[in-house]
TrEMBL record:
The lineage of its organism: Bacteria, Bacillati, Actinomycetota, Actinomycetes, Streptosporangiales. The keyword Flavoprotein applies. It holds the Pfam family Pyr_redox_2. Keywords: FAD, Flavoprotein, Oxidoreductase. It comes from Nonomuraea spiralis. This is NAD(P)/FAD-dependent oxidoreductase.
Length: 413
């Protein structure tokens, strides 16, 4: 029998490392595993890059997905600082750089995403920063400590976290976003407005309903001019206007791509030798009956674990309810579900205070929820959304009803 050519994982990311771990430890896969990564760092976790790592309260080693010795102990070959440049799925070979080729039996594409670039005059000036990887965070952290005025372009999760970090460092901070409220596409006007108030209370100059027309300066940033004609002083600009999945390698290899690498519910792509996972994958989600691409930490963990099961011949349907968390100004926000057009928002607790929770209902069924400083609640909220049953709005709003009691009761068998 021919030797197993093994698994190549393209992307030394959270999803990629999680897949390697699960292959070895959960499924006892004993074939070769090679983990390929563009960066020279061991696989690391990204959430802290806009929080504790940016502030210098988290050390580099705390970002590691796995203990550094795992790779040698479990015979996982690392090819770091070696971007994959070509993928031949029929020949089952991947090229690294110009000269190195690896054979594989199966390949997992976990190439992640990159920041969308700002397309206005002055976007290439010194002092314009993006935040995606560990080196970006280190550069931005140093720049923030030397800055007087920062303008954050984009009031999504990343922009809000960077703004909170900048204020923690005492930097004058302005956030510009064309939408009516922070995280408007996720939280809507009402709950997004509560987040806006929190940023305003911490001294952020929040310019919603406005966009950036140009970044001003000669060699480096001096100000930002908005669409409304405001001139905002800045010696530092941080751009957080979303990401683009890194699908080029997959597309050149002939895989189906549409806003991400398309997969079925088991993360299998249009070629039998290839799977995709993490930020780059747009998988057919049986719960939502459509392809979805989710950029959160939790999704990378779930995808990595599920991809390993499929690679090991034990396909697992990926049907989890998405989960996301953020920390801003000492508070932890946890969100479950997908952003959706909902006909009702029900709240419990005092807005912005610990325990505050918002539920988004679609025809009486909870489809998403946000909770603030409410340890342990997210699991119950995830179960509530996963159940897909109608809920009594009065019970949802009543803080005396424990979260666990909101879950539908399963009849005794």
């Amino acid at each position: 029998m021919a030797a197993d050519p093994g698994v190549v994982i393209i992307g030394a990311s959270l999803a990629g490392a999680q897949a390697a771990r699960a292959l070895r430890l959960d499924h006892c896969y004993d074939g070769p595993i090679t983990l390929v990564g563009d960066e020279n760092h061991l696989p690391y976790q990204r959430p802290a890059l806009s929080k504790g790592y940016l502030l210098g309260t988290i050390e580099p080693g705390e970002l590691d997905v796995l203990e550094p010795r795992f790779y040698a102990d479990q015979d996982v070959t690392l090819a770091l600082g070696a971007p994959a440049t070509a993928l031949d799925l029929d020949a089952r070979r991947v090229r690294l750089g110009r000269n190195v080729e690896l054979a594989f039996g199966q390949v997992l594409i976990a190439t992640g995403a990159r920041p969308r670039r700002l397309r206005v005059p002055g976007a290439d000036l010194d002092g314009v920063h993006y935040l995606r990887d560990r080196d970006d965070s280190e550069r931005l952290g140093a720049a923030l400590r030397a800055a007087s005025d920062v303008v954050v372009i984009g009031a999504g999760w990343l922009g809000c976290e960077v703004a909170a970090a900048a204020r923690a460092l005492g930097v004058r901070t302005t956030v510009v976003d064309p939408l009516p409220a922070p995280l408007y596409h996720v939280l809507g006007d009402r709950i997004g407005g509560l987040l806006a108030r929190r940023h305003l209370d911490h001294g952020v100059n929040l310019l919603t309903g406005d966009g950036v027309e140009a970044v001003l300066g000669t060699r480096s940033v001096e100000a930002v001019r908005t669409v409304a004609g405001r001139r905002v002083p800045a010696d530092l600009v941080v751009v957080g206007v979303g990401v683009t999945p890194n699908t080029e390698l997959a597309e050149a290899a002939g895989l189906r791509v549409d806003g991400g690498v398309l997969t079925d519910g088991h993360l299998r792509t249009s070629h039998p030798a290839a799977l995709a996972a993490g930020d780059v994958a747009r998988h057919r989600h049986p719960r939502y009956l459509k392809p979805v691409r989710i950029e959160h930490w939790d999704n990378a963990v779930v995808h990595g674990t599920a991809a390993a099961a499929t690679l090991a011949g034990r396909p697992t349907v990926v049907d989890h309810v998405p989960y996301f968390f953020s920390t801003q100004y000492g508070s932890t926000l946890e969100y479950v579900g997908l952003p959706a057009t909902s006909d009702r928002v029900v709240t419990r607790g005092v807005p912005g205070e610990p325990g505050f929770t918002a539920f988004w209902l679609d025809r009486g069924i909870p489809v998403a929820a946000l909770t603030v400083d409410n340890p342990g609640a997210a699991g119950h909220l995830r179960g509530l959304v996963a159940a897909g049953h109608s809920a009594d709005p009065r019970r949802l709003a009543d803080p005396d009803v424990p979260m666990a009691d909101l879950l539908p009761r399963v009849p005794a068998s």
